[in-house]
Amino acid sequence: MTERHGPLKGVKVIELAHIMAGPVCGLMLADMGADVIKVEKIPGGDDTRRTVPPDIDGESAAFMMMNRNKQGIALNLKEEKGREVLLRLLKDADIVTENYRRGTMEKLGLGYEELKKINPGLIYCEISGFGRTGPYADRAGFDLIAQGMSGLMSITGEGPGRPPVKVGPPVSDITAGILGAMGVLAAYTHKLKTGEGQRVDTSLFEAAITHTYWQSAIAFATGEAPGPMGSAHPLNAPYQAFRTGDGWINIGAANQSNWLRLLEVLEAPELAEDERFKENPGRMSHMAELTEALEAHFRTRGTADWLERMEKAGLPAGPVLDIAEMHRDPQTIAREMVTETEHARLGPVKTIGLPVKFSGTPGGVVTGAPLYGQHTREVLAQIGYGDAEIEALAAAGAIALA
Question: Which of 173, 246, 305, 387 is catalytic?
Answer without folding.
Answer: 173
